[in-house]
TrEMBL record:
<comment type="similarity">
    <text>Belongs to the clavaminate synthase family.</text>
</comment>
<dbReference type="Pfam" id="PF02668">
    <property type="entry name" value="TauD"/>
</dbReference>
<keyword id="KW-0408">Iron</keyword>
<dbReference type="InterPro" id="IPR003819">
    <property type="entry name" value="TauD/TfdA-like"/>
</dbReference>
<protein>
    <submittedName>
        <fullName>Clavaminate synthase family protein</fullName>
    </submittedName>
</protein>
<keyword id="KW-0479">Metal-binding</keyword>
<dbReference type="InterPro" id="IPR014503">
    <property type="entry name" value="Clavaminate_syn-like"/>
</dbReference>
<keyword id="KW-0560">Oxidoreductase</keyword>
<feature type="domain" description="TauD/TfdA-like">
    <location>
        <begin position="142"/>
        <end position="316"/>
    </location>
</feature>
<dbReference type="InterPro" id="IPR042098">
    <property type="entry name" value="TauD-like_sf"/>
</dbReference>
């Protein structure tokens, strides 16, 4: 596995550390939005205002986002640093399951503003109650879960790989890291991994010889509501598009191969991803965007203390196309059913 140092030189173009003047500029726009009439984040009028205000982000930030949207680089990751987020002033890290951020805060406004400059924020009705800003926090009793509530290593996955309208990008904004400051989002990219695979293995991965289950969060939600909301588990290919620069659709916890040859190919793909993976250790005030078509992600293990100061990320999902999956959007809005 590469260490973080290996990642740095090649990443220079896609990463941005705000100057203190830019941090203040962004803080002012976020504060304006956080004060906007005490609305809820999921309120359509608030989102409209957030979309307008996203055009007032610092110029270099807009340039970085535009560059990343055009070409997410070999890693499919953009890291933004020195955002106006972090202690002092944060409440205790939430500890409840399905935690989301409904009321407008400066960190939530920062996450939404940047996400809305990248594209359209979306969420899934059956995951974390369809909230547009979700909390990634360790939950007591869920340590061993293969979800973002856990604290054991989380398997590499494309976000919501089972879903036809899975996000194009995932945003992760760090409010607090774990106590040791070492918990990392493991990131890897198909652009790097595919180069390690022989042609016959790639050929198998390009064929519909795989199926992917919904994650535990979706399953819980659908049984809760007694709805058949989860799309049929159709067989699909793991790689798609251009042979030498494919998109990827896999979750190494939830995707299974439908025959032995496919199983062997999937294992080789996992090994290739692990070989080129890097741990992106987000510290408070840092936000990563992952291109969910190219990059896959997981998380290293950490030890939660449940003392109000545990690791806390805000998560957003972004689509590039506001008409994608429109027929499945609740009231034509950002929540996908
Ligand atoms: O905790 C992390 O760094 C990532 C967790 C994750 O996969 C997610 O929230 O989608
Ligand atoms: Fe994830």
């Amino acid at each position: 596995m590469m260490d973080q140092g290996t990642l740095v030189p090649e990443r220079a173009l896609l990463d941005l550390t705000l100057t203190s003047a830019e941090r203040d500029e962004l803080g002012q726009v976020a504060a304006l939005l956080a004060d906007a009439g005490r609305r809820l984040i999921d309120d359509r009028e608030w989102l409209t205002q957030a979309r307008e205000l996203s055009c007032r982000l610092p110029l270099r930030l807009r340039e970085a986002v535009r560059r990343f949207r055009h070409d997410p680089g070999d890693d499919g990751v953009m890291a933004l640093r020195n955002l106006p987020v972090g202690d002092p002033g944060l409440p205790a890290t939430p500890t409840v399951t399905e935690s989301v951020e409904r009321t407008v805060t400066v960190p939530a406004a920062v996450a939404v503003l940047i996400s809305l400059y990248l594209g359209e924020v979306v969420a899934f009705r059956d995951e974390k109650s369809g909230a547009l800003v979700q909390n990634v926090v360790p939950v007591p009793g869920r340590e061993g879960s293969q979800s973002n509530a856990g604290s054991i290593p989380l398997e590499l996955h494309v976000e919501n790989a089972f879903h036809a309208h899975r996000p194009d990008f995932v945003g992760l904004l760090c409010l607090r890291n774990d106590h040791s400051g070492t918990a990392g989002t493991l990131v890897s990219s198909v652009r790097r991994a595919v180069r390690l695979l022989p042609q016959d293995v790639r050929d198998v991965l390009f064929q519909p010889r795989f199926a992917t289950e919904p994650p535990p969060s979706f399953r819980a939600a659908s049984s809760l509501h007694g709805r058949g909301t989860v799309p049929a588990n159709e067989s699909h290919a793991v790689l798609g598009g251009l042979p030498d620069d494919p998109n990827v659709r896999v979750d190494f916890h939830a995707t299974c191969a439908l025959d032995d040859t496919a199983k062997a190919a999937l294992e080789l793909l996992r090994n290739a991803f692990l070989e080129v993976a890097a741990s992106l250790v987000l510290q408070p005030g840092e936000m990563a965007f992952l291109d969910n078509r190219i990059a896959i992600h997981g998380r290293t293990a950490f030890t939660p203390r449940y003392d109000g100061r545990d690791r806390w990320l805000h998560r957003t999902f972004v689509h590039l196309d506001n008409r994608r999956g429109l027929a499945q959007r609740v009231g034509g809005g950002p929540v996908i059913s």
